[in-house]
Amino acid sequence: MAARAVRTALACLTALALAGCGAKVAETDQTDKTDAKATGHYPVTVENCGVKTTFDKAPQRVVTNDVGIAEIMFALGLEDHMAGYVAPDYKGDRESVPWKDGYQKVKWLSKKEITKEIVLDAKADLVFAGWNYGFGEGNNFTPDSLKKLGIGSYLLTESCRNNGSAKSRGVMPPLEALYTDLATLGKVFDVEDRAAKLVAGFKKQVADAQARIPADGKKPSVFLYDDGRDKPLTSGVYAGPHDIITKAGGDHVMKDLKDSWTSVSWETVVERDPDVIVINNYGDVTAEQKKAFLKSYGPLANVSAVKNDRIFVLDYVDLVESPRNPAAIAALADYLKGVRTG
């Protein structure tokens, strides 16, 4: 679409938004309000990343960004409330998850970066994304910029900015962030019972995994390797891997990083000498290529995980906030048991 055409479309849609279309940020018509209030549930006010928002009815045309966020909606059974999802050409397993049908029911809008044009074409009334999970000032795709178009936003809690900082993310432990989003979205879409059942099931799955962890012995120390050659991208205390590692019986070597996803130096990795390295499997660089690099990179030669070939692979959607986190804890817990006794 030519730049002039895009500007014209945005201007027209902005005018429509001001006239009353869109998500909660714009007024719904009186019929919709009457129908919503008749259920006894709406209006409902929720807090998301420190911002309170009131919904007069459930959003009907949600667009999500990234795989884990789409699967949160799928797990809640909200496919009928979605206009589509944006995600890269994800090659991981979609068939073994209980909510696999969501991928068949909901339109895959784009394999590239989410944009205003995509959500406008989808006639979205709400965008569910996160800071650095679609939202960012650099591309002028923010909740504020969408609000001007009459489109509401819901932020992934894992990505909430810490104390207003544009760099540091994370305001609560990762699993708590997942449970918070499930409960909050349960209120927004009037599926609180479904959300509560999911959370209870996930907590049981984690508890069952922890019950299998040996009570004696030293906790294996674990480093999460996302990607990067010059400097490794890893997880701090507020990203999914922290809870996955610690609740699986490991000692997260980067637990002192008060951030979600961030870079460190290889010198720090060598100094902390992890017993296990968990590889985040995603992107154009395969897990096998990442493993080959770790094993061939000279400075890591004497790191315990590399020397003993203790490298475990989890998928990207296992490690970002998603309903797959509890299963990832169980899988890693079983692996770490062998490290304790091996």
Automatic annotation (TrEMBL):
Domain of life: Bacteria
Record-linked PANTHER family: IRON(III) DICITRATE-BINDING PROTEIN, VITAMIN B12-BINDING PROTEIN
Fe/B12 periplasmic-binding domain residues: 61-342
Pfam families the record matches: Peripla_BP_2
Source organism per UniProt: Streptomyces stramineus
Record-stated family: Belongs to the bacterial solute-binding protein 8 family.
Signal peptide: 1-19
Record's protein name: ABC transporter substrate-binding protein
Keywords for the protein's UniProt record, in alphabetical order: Signal
Record PROSITE patterns: FE_B12_PBP, PROKAR_LIPOPROTEIN
Family matches, as InterPro entries: ABC_Transporter_SBP, ABC_transptr_periplasmic_BD
